[in-house]
Amino acid sequence: MLTSKVFIKKTKRGSVMKIVREHYLRDDITCGSRVCGLCEHPKKQQKPPLEENPNNRSSLCKRQHYLLPDTNVVLHQIDVIEDPSVTNVIILQTVLDEVKHRSIPAFKRMKDMLGNPDKHFYTFCNEFNKDTYVEREPGESSNDRNDRAIRQATNWYRQHIRNVDIVLLTNDAENKTKATNAGLQAFTVYDYIKSLKDAGSLVDRLANPLTKVSIQGNKVLFPEHLHLSDIQRGIKSGRYHQGNVLASRENYLEANVSVGGLDKMVFIQGMINLNRAVDGDIVAIEMLPESEWSCPSSLVLVDREERQKEEDDLDENEKEVKNPVPEELRQPTGRVIGIIKRKWRQYCGILQPSLLKEATRHLFIAAEKKIPKIRIETRQAENLTGKRIIVAIDSWPRTSRYPLGHFVRELGNVGEKDTENEVLLLEHDVPHSNFSQAVLNCLPEMPWTITEEDEQKRTNLRHIDICSVDPPGCTDIDDALHCRRLENGNLEVGVHIADVSHFIRPNTPLDNEAASRGTTVYLSDMRIDMVPELLSSNLCSLRSNVDRFAFSVLWEVTDEAELVGKPKFMKSIIHSKASLTYAEAQMKIDDPNQHDTLTESLRNLNKLAKILKRRRIENGALSLASTEVRFYVDSETHDPIDVQVKEIRETNSMVEEFMLLANVTVAQKIKDEFPHCACLRRHPSPPPSNFDPLIKAAKSKGLTVDVSSGKALSDSLDKAQFPGNPFFNTMLRIMTTRCMMQAVYFCSGMLPEDEFVHYGLAAPIYTHYTSPIRRFSDIIVHRLLAASIGADATYPELLDKQKTQMVCNNLNYRHKMAQYAGRASVNLHTQLFFKERVQDEEGYVLFVRKNALQVLIPKYGLEGTLFLNAPEKGAASLFTYDEEENTQTAGDVVFHVFDPVTIQLFIDRSNVQNMKLSVKLVKPVVPGFSVPPAAYKQTTEPPTKKRKK
Question: Where is each RNB domain found (predicted)?
Answer without folding.
Answer: 458-791
